[in-house]
């Protein structure tokens, strides 16, 4: 279909410049670093890293999926889905589970590891898990503000609806 037709997919470059878009890109990149660093160690010998891998890979895949949906403006084609609420729930859940993954990953790093490169990679994964956790927390804030209507509260929305 020609690019000007209503059914054509268009990239939304402005989304990448928005706080949510920029944070989503950061979450995808940093989340990839977390699970790649853990995957390059002997994580299977330590049960705690199974949880970290699950959280990192699961939320990385969902973040990339949501990023593609928003970049291709597919969210505009599915009006039945409350996308702003979906983002609030997704980001809040990711934040909480990344808190547990960060704590688990950090607690499982042992400086007396017999493989120095495992220690370095696990320590780096803990650092990046902290950054991803903060990014998801910021995304939760921005998506909550967007869901609430950029600063409006119940009183102002009632007044605006009656006017």
TrEMBL record:
Any single Gene Ontology cellular-component annotation: apical plasma membrane
Localisation per UniProt entry: Apical cell membrane; Myelin membrane
Biological process (GO), any one: myelination
Pfam families registered for this protein in UniProt: MARVEL
Domain MARVEL intervals: 15-148
Cross-referenced InterPro entries: MAL, Marvel, MARVEL-CKLF_proteins
Assembly information from the UniProt record: Forms oligomers.
Assigned protein family: Belongs to the MAL family.
Stated name of the protein: Plasmolipin
Gene source species: Eudromia elegans
Name of the coding gene: Pllp
